[in-house]
User: Fold this.
Amino acid sequence: MKKKYLECGKIVSTHGLRGELRVMHWCDSAEFLLGFKTLYLDGGAKPIAVENMRLNKNIVLLKLAGVDDIDTAVSLRGKVLYIDRDDAPEGDGEFLQDIIGMTVKDTDTGEYYGKLTDVFRTGANDVYEITGGDGAKRLIPAIPDVVIEADTDSAVMQIRPLKGLFGDE
Assistant:
């Protein structure tokens, strides 16, 4: 099931004395985050208007409505920021958070492999971490030959492991 509110970054520090915040973004690019007029705290429960947002090297500097001094800014340190999926630009309908937690099954045999627990960005292709019921972790390449289907509505990913991927010959 697709989440309405998606994690987009974390407030890591303050910037200056007037309530500006330093945000480590979790988006593919910081530019994606710059387009939002409203961000959310507390898992999406608390909307907060964005007064200003800009880049400073690899950090986003953020000024939120009502955060006008250093004390208020310090109280937000460590908080996770969220965006509303409906506010995302057209064409940005799929997010990594949609696949985390998916049940992973073999497309041919129906064998249950576990849950998708992490995604690693390697450059050439992503690598998915699958954690089995016994706690064992397996890595699979996120390539079309292996990942046959990822149905976000049913939260099931169908895969066809390559020979030797899971220790079979």
